């Protein structure tokens, strides 16, 4: 089920900074790799808002760290442009880069 912009309930929860709702949806096996009409995944939205705890939960539940939006933006691009403290930005970069370095990335994902 999505809205007119292709957002799932998980996208909407993250856009509205409802971390508790996002966690419930993740626990209920919401699709952590769903993309809205812009190609954004829930991880893109968590990264942009500096939501470290939810980003970690999404990655633990196999959210793609290599997904790109329709404009070709990666999750790391969203961390870079998001509004957060330098510490949270650094921790998000480390979290995502660690996942990328421990995962075999196929040519399709690049």
Automatic annotation (TrEMBL):
Pfam families attached here?
Ank_5
InterPro entries tied to this protein: Ankyrin_rpt, Ankyrin_rpt-contain_sf
- Give the superkingdom in one word: Eukaryota
Q: Does the keyword Repeat apply?
A: yes
Q: Which UniProt keywords apply?
A: ANK repeat, Repeat
| Placement of ANK repeats on the sequence | 5-37, 38-70
- The protein in question is named Serine/threonine-protein phosphatase 6 regulatory ankyrin repeat subunit C
Query: Could you tell me which species this protein originates from?
Result: Culex pipiens
The organism that produces this protein has a lineage beginning with: Eukaryota, Metazoa, Ecdysozoa, Arthropoda, Hexapoda
């Amino acid at each position: 089920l999505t809205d007119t912009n292709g957002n799932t309930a998980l996208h909407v929860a993250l856009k509205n900074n409802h971390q508790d709702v996002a966690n419930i949806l993740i626990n209920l096996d919401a699709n952590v790799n769903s993309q809205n009409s812009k190609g954004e995944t829930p991880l893109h939205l968590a990264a942009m808002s500096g939501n470290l705890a939810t980003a970690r939960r999404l990655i633990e539940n196999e959210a793609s760290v290599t997904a790109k939006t329709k404009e070709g933006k990666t999750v790391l691009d969203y961390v870079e442009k998001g509004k957060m403290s330098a510490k949270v930005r650094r921790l998000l970069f480390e979290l995502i880069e660690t996942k990328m370095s421990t995962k075999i990335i196929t040519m399709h994902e690049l």
